[in-house]
Write a structure and sequence with these properties.
Order of helices and strands: HHH
CATH topology: Four Helix Bundle (Hemerythrin (Met), subunit A)
Distance between the termini: 49 Å
CATH architecture: Up-down Bundle
Radius of gyration: 26 Å
CATH class: Mainly Alpha
Largest sheet: none
Structural class: mainly alpha
Oligomer: single chain
Length: about 90
Amino acid sequence: MHINELIKYYDGRFAHLQKIITYPHLGDYRLSLVRFDERYCSKLSSAVNFMYMAVVLVHDMVKKNQDKLAEYRIMAEETKESYDFFN
């Protein structure tokens, strides 16, 4: 979600609020604002769910390959020690 989407949301919300202030006796504009907020909440919920699934995927991959990652780290440290000219 980018900053432009937040700006677009607040601009749309402001337009709905202007109509509510202009026509306070009409309940349709209030209902329209509620629906507008529900749509945005749904978008946010979807974005959070996507981020959660990405974190779960990365966590699962790290857990499954933990042995390989540990071996790679040991090999990298040994290689670093062999090329260390200042010791």
